[in-house]
Recover the amino acids of this structure.
């Protein structure tokens, strides 16, 4: 099984740290699961969705979308800008063929400057997953600036506990889904 962690921003480091922390919990507790971080900061030339076939987009776009399609399940992170997910993350969702993530498990985390932005997961990310008919892990994690130290490492033990719980939920749900489809 392969878990993709998608950090949906072209700037900043808190979101990829959060996503990678979930991946590391999975890697440490379930070494049989392959994990990969897609940090969109490494794919700055991803193109806007305009209806072309995937093979007509540039290499960055094709690479991200192909990795997403090939994965078995996901943890998706976004910083919250203007009370919403990032445009680049929305663009990735727009580029994905609906059937490519149908019946796959997703978990979410968001980062932001205030505690009020946690509702973006409920009001925007979960409905997107519903459109794709994906299964959503019941827990999600919202990380505020207070959860990080000066070097952008997660210092808050309760936040780390929630990230580990999300990792375990993702693995449990994916394992059960895989077992039931045999």
């Amino acid at each position: 099984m392969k878990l993709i962690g998608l950090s949906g921003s072209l700037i900043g480091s808190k979101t990829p740290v959060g996503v990678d922390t979930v991946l590391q919990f999975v890697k440490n507790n379930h070494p049989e699961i392959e994990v990969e971080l897609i940090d969109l900061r490494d794919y700055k030339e991803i193109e806007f969705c305009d209806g072309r076939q995937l093979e007509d987009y540039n290499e960055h776009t094709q690479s991200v979308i192909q990795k997403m399609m090939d994965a078995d399940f996901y943890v998706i992170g976004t910083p919250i800008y203007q009370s919403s997910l990032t445009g680049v993350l929305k663009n990735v969702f727009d580029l994905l063929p609906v059937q490519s993530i149908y019946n796959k498990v997703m978990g979410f985390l968001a980062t932001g400057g205030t505690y009020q932005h946690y509702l973006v997961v409920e009001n925007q990310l979960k409905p997107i997953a519903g459109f794709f008919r994906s299964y959503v892990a019941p827990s999600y994690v919202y990380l505020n600036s207070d959860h990080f130290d000066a070097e952008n490492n997660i210092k808050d033990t309760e936040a780390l506990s929630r990230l580990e719980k999300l990792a375990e939920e993702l693995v449990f749900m994916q394992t059960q889904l895989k077992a039931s489809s045999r």
Remarks:
- The first helix runs from residue 14 to 29.
